[in-house]
Amino acid sequence: MAVTIREVAQAAGVHVSTVSRTFSAPNLVNAETRERVIAAAAELGYRPNLAARALTTGRTNNLGLIVADIANPFFPPLIKAAQSYARVRGYQVFVADTDEDPRVEEELIGTLARQVDGVLLVSPRLSNAAIVRLGADLPFAVVNRRVKGMPAVLMDVGTGAGAAVDHLAGLGHRRLVVLGGPRNSWTSGQIRRAAGAAAERHGVELSYHGPNAPTEQGGYRAAAAVLAAGATGVIAYNDLMAIGAIEGLATAGAEVPRDVSVVGVDDTVAGRLNRPKLTTIAMPTQTAGRAAVDLLLQAIDEAASGTVQMILETDLVVRDSTGPRVAVERRV
Amino acid sequence: MAVTIREVAQAAGVHVSTVSRTFSAPNLVNAETRERVIAAAAELGYRPNLAARALTTGRTNNLGLIVADIANPFFPPLIKAAQSYARVRGYQVFVADTDEDPRVEEELIGTLARQVDGVLLVSPRLSNAAIVRLGADLPFAVVNRRVKGMPAVLMDVGTGAGAAVDHLAGLGHRRLVVLGGPRNSWTSGQIRRAAGAAAERHGVELSYHGPNAPTEQGGYRAAAAVLAAGATGVIAYNDLMAIGAIEGLATAGAEVPRDVSVVGVDDTVAGRLNRPKLTTIAMPTQTAGRAAVDLLLQAIDEAASGTVQMILETDLVVRDSTGPRVAVERRV
DNA sequence: GTGAAAGCGCTAACAA
DNA sequence: TTGTTAGCGCTTTCAC
Q: To the nearest whole number, what is the mean pLDDT of chain A?
């Protein structure tokens, strides 16, 4: 069995409570005694049992981090940043994947509930109502979702989407289509709304096709709808989908960017490596991961303080998947 | 405060131990009482406190999963598979990232020690000696490392590397270089050894350059060494490095695969999306993730049973980054 | 500044 | 089949 506080106490010739204090409130213990205790602890290889501590303090020093799909390249940088920052702040993090399923998400929150001090919901697939309901039990912070009264980090994809429409309109495209993501995705809604507004400003036609799976496959399948709509400009929910759409278009004989221009979202490695290099909306994922942990810890510490919603900017990164519209007669 | 076993007991009109049994050993309790307890628990929204349970049982039902770099595309599919399979088996998993630093790895193991039943070390950067020492305290399972007496899942990259050399030699390349990965990487050693043996069989020259950072940057920097060695065939430690090397070669005026053939390892999305599409050694990451959890749980359950080392096959996937050697006079 | 004692939520003998 | 009791490792009053 592992070394406990009791054995350290014995070795140092003090009472257990003194050992406890040495670690949780060192200033309350005589410097000399403290030295002795610390030496004994080091000698025996003592490590506090956090679970036991949690039982009395009510603080586990653990966080939950729930994402839709770990393997989607959008998430790993965020997970990495969140996890590493949490560690600096003294927290370990449970990472869980919902496979894009809201029911799994709810179940996971339940399982995690008693063993974490709070949960980070990244691009949740749950409805706002469900989040609010579950949030009554447990501090939450959400990323890419606006929920009344809840700390949130929002990546303002709307401005990016607007810029994308400006960009496409500027290139002469008159008929655009937005390929939406999963049903409950806030990001997807933002893109649609902002792109719609921008299109109207430019007097450009814009239609919506969705929901789609946020994957290459989803994009590949959606290519048909793009052609059916007669669009020459596409804004896809994420890079993966944009890459899939480009493949799908190629299969149907339409080349990117010659015949159709495609814009992705996220600025993942995938988009940078793809050929043509993807024009995309860059999301500040690492900043978001860090900030979300910050907000969550704040929410945990100050029970019910004022809610903070943090908005991070996004940028349009122009690469090679967008180009000027070519006159109809030259197409096909 | 959260609902405890006591309140459920009161509501159901039974003693706490009966409630406890209803959840941990339902068959030991009268069907009728059980119903009543379950109903009361559901009514109150009771959720067992796993940390408290862990205190008495010594079982946390948590696992640790330590990787070198979450953002490296090799890991996410493995993490996803491991996490999802662990959940099916009733375990939650802490995911931690060491940033390729062995000291962080050791520290993380220490922190996790008392709150998990076992730890999965995926492509560890720690020395074997350190792993054995730390493993005395806590069940481990390792992936991509062979440690005496420890359950392991090995992706047999050696055969893949041999096949890669066969492939390159078959294309006429007579001078190859292996770009190694991090210092303590078992995979890197395997590649070097197997490639060396295969090169000897073919009577082909093979040199080694390493260690390198397992990133695009690392590959980019190593390109100079490739050219200096006068090699026309390269096997890189992973896809990222291969992609970086291709860029680096291009910068130096050498085109892939015209002037130099490059083989990666891992078969990540990155490699599939890169242009030229990467010839690479496919690693069964998802299978490995699942299998490793399996082995770890086995090790946890049967204290000190016979050690299992599981070897998974790898495949050479030929794409566009390798091609026939072109006569010297046509190069440059 | 340190010790004594109670208790966090739960399980596991042991009795009844 | 159910209740009683002790205790897991730790923190936290309260005395001294």
A: 94
